[in-house]
Amino acid sequence: MTKVKICGLMETEHVEAAVEAGVDAVGFVFAPSRRRVAIAQAKELARSVPEHVLKIGVFVNATVEELVFAYREVPLDIVQYHGEESAEFIQRVGLPSIKVVAVRGADDVMDVREAKTDFVLVDAPGIEFKGGSGKVFDWSLLKGELPKERMIVAGGLHAGNVRDAIRQVRPFMVDVSSGVEKDGRKDASLIREFIRVVKEEES
Ligand SMILES: O=C(O)c1ccccc1NCC(=O)[C@H](O)[C@H](O)COP(=O)(O)O
């Protein structure tokens, strides 16, 4: 069964809706974004997240000190590197990790293959911010020998296209932010619907 992550959560009611619907991971954005949360806010949201649901912190080019502080304070289970962080830097930080690869074309797929992190998240390139653009990239680029067992697919997913993404790519997990929002805010019914469609789909 493909796992599901809801990213960019900012309000307790939406965390609770995701948990009740069977979410596997929730994401809190600490990078520049309209979805950015403060550490104290994420700490409060984390109180509604049960042990079996992963809490993922999204960062863009943060320092080691910022990463370690957030990881311990919230606390987080995994750090998502959404910027230009090098493999050496990620290894030096030494926390459970997801490296994001923005897929513009076939050349970027090499980075997916070579990622040494626990998970690799493939996303559409950012527009205003590094992620959460709501744009889809060409999933057909994800053919061939790729680490599907630790791959997370993101970028413009919603309840209407996530089934196709799963069937085409067969990733470990799918990730959504814009596709479960209405008027720029998360929406509990869209969250429930997205999770329902993913859970229905056998992988
Ligand atoms: O969501 C953001 O605003 C964001 C800003 C800066 C870096 C990363 C960000 N989001 C990370 C995610 O994991 C999103 O879920 C992913 O980019 C997909 O977003 P969407 O296309 O909106 O579903």
Would you summarize the structure shown here?
The protein is of the alpha/beta class. It has helices at 12-21, 39-46, 64-73, 87-93, 106-114, 162-169, 188-200, and strands at 3-6, 25-29, 54-59, 78-81, 97-102, 119-123, 151-153, 173-176, 181-182, 185-186.
Spans where pLDDT lies below 50 across 5 or more residues: none
What is the mean predicted local confidence, pLDDT? 96
How does the overall form come out from the CA principal axes?
A: globular
Considering the protein shown, what is the CATH homologous superfamily?
A: Aldolase class I
- Portion in beta strands: 15-25%
Numbering strands along the chain, what is their spatial order in the largest sheet?
Answer: 1-2-3-4-5-6-7-8
- Just give the CATH class: Alpha Beta
Sheet having the most strands = 8 strands, parallel, barrel
SSE topology string: EHEHEHEHEHEEHEEEH
Supply the CATH architecture: Alpha-Beta Barrel
The name of the CATH topology is TIM Barrel
List ligands, each type once. ligand LARABZUK
Give the class from helix and strand content and strand pairing: alpha/beta
Number of H/I helices: 7
- The Cα radius of gyration reads 15 Å
Please report the distance between the alpha carbons of the first and last residues. Answer: 5 Å
Total domain count: 1
Please estimate the helix content. Answer: 25-40%
How many strand segments?
A: 10
